Q: What sequence folds into this?
């Protein structure tokens, strides 16, 4: 495929971006069939000054029983201090009303600034944002906007269990790309792509969780990121960068740039569709995530939203917008620093117990982001043995002893056996961790004795 590039007209080095037409071959048949909602596509025009809108069937907000909404928020710098934030007047009216499909303008603006701050992506440079009901909502819509039933997709392996059923229900061939403690093994990815059978449709997407991966805890290194990005350009696929643990990085080295940031160094931008989530940093129940990427893909996601749930809850967007505007970017950064230290401490407590009870019984790498340990159970002393299966140990023995974790098989698209286990260290107290790992040790010892 020939790619023509467009300049963006901004100052500084010309940023080349892929033209909208590039994405035609990336859209699924379903996405191409979808038509814009006749009402929702006109809704932004309602803001035209002087215009009287008789357009949408919006209920009259004066009939709603809410007159104001107040909540107490902790200070990001002094969490013992609280301030009361109130949503009323026009803000409340917006929060109670139908709104634009892509999201509430004040929240979109704030997030736009956040993406510029953290990823160097400036406004109007060929990308935009859509807000979803959590990132899961947007990932689901992106997958359906891009992948036709039966098409092959590239997934890092092990992979977030929440995407396996999406690809499975589309009858996709999930091509597993090996990972290690440094992220996706780009050399394996290169081999897959270079040995791709002639005549077989090539994968359009690669799904990856580059920071504190769920389930493996790994954080992809800069070198690996660069190599994967180069392959995306060479072999024409879009990186679905699912990064809900980006803000839970507690490694000692400076943070690696995201794929979304790194592509600014590429000859052209447009190979990354990024998903962020506020679930791990503000609240999981509030259900706010956002997708950032090329207009053509965001448009396809929005058209799905316009025909499914119309939009993400205006009220939760108004609450999040109020909080974030009151904090500002410095406040948000202070909050992030505080919570990432919180998880670093949890990680240390967990690892201390692992060293105490599981030395010689399990192997692991230390995560530098996120909330997961991924460890291999050593179920036999025989180095020649195939490693075995963690299922019985975890689902039966450990559970009977009073500890619940996930056997690694659930993170493998083909459900094969694996001696790996995923344990989340986000909630348990120091005491609980000590007990849980002791119980796990007893379960492993029991399995080894059989
Ligand atoms: N991706 C990954 C890798 C996750 O771990 C999760 C949450 N478990 C999600 C997406 C979904 O997050 P959200 O709450 O934003 O929908």
A:
């Amino acid at each position: 495929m020939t790619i023509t590039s467009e300049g963006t007209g901004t100052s500084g080095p010309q940023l080349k971006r892929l033209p909208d037409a590039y994405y035609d071959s990336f859209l699924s048949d379903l996405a191409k069939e979808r038509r814009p909602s006749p009402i929702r596509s006109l809704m932004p025009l309602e803001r035209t000054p002087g215009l009287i809108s008789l357009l949408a069937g919006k209920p009259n907000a004066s009939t709603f029983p809410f007159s104001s909404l107040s909540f107490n928020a902790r200070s990001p710098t002094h969490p013992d201090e609280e301030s009361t934030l109130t949503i009323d007047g026009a803000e409340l009216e917006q929060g109670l009303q139908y709104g634009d499909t892509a999201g509430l303008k004040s929240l979109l603006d704030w997030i736009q600034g956040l993406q510029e701050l953290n990823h160097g992506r400036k406004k109007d440079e060929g990308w935009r944002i859509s807000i979803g009901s959590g990132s899961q909502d947007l990932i689901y819509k992106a997958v359906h906007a891009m992948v036709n039933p039966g098409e092959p997709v590239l997934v890092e392996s092990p992979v977030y269990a929440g995407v396996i059923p999406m690809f499975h229900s589309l009858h996709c061939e999930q091509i597993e790309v090996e990972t290690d403690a440094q992220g996706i093994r780009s050399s394996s990815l290169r081999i897959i792509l270079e040995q791709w059978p002639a005549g077989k449709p090539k994968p359009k997407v690669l799904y990856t969780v580059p920071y504190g991966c769920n389930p493996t805890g790994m954080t992809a290194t800069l070198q690996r990121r660069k190599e994967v990005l180069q392959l995306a350009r060479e072999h024409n696929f879009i990186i679905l960068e699912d990064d809900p643990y980006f803000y839970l990085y507690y490694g000692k080295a400076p943070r690696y740039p995201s794929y979304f940031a790194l592509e600014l160094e590429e000859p052209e931008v447009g190979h990354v569709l990024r998903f962020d989530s506020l679930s791990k940093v503000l609240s999981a129940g509030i259900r706010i995530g956002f997708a950032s990427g090329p207009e053509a893909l965001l448009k396809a996601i929005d058209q799905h939203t316009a025909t499914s749930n119309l939009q993400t809850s205006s009220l939760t967007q108004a609450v999040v917008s109020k909080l974030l505007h009151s904090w500002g970017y410095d406040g948000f950064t202070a909050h992030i620093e505080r919570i990432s230290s919180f998880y670093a401490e949890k990680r240390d407590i967990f690892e201390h117990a692992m060293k105490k009870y599981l030395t010689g019984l399990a192997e692991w790498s230390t995560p530098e982001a996120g909330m997961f340990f991924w460890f291999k159970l050593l179920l036999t002393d025989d180095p020649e043995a195939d490693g075995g299966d963690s299922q019985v140990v975890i689902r039966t023995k450990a559970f009977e002893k009073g500890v619940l974790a996930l056997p690694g098989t659930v993170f493998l698209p083909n459900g094969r056996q694996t001696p790996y286990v995923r344990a989340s260290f986000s909630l348990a107290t120091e005491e609980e961790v000590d007990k849980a790992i002791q119980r796990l040790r007893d379960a492993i010892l029991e399995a080894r004795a059989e």
The two ends are 58 Å apart (CA to CA). Residues 1-12 have pLDDT under 50 and may be disordered. The CA atoms of residues 382 and 448 lie 11 Å apart.
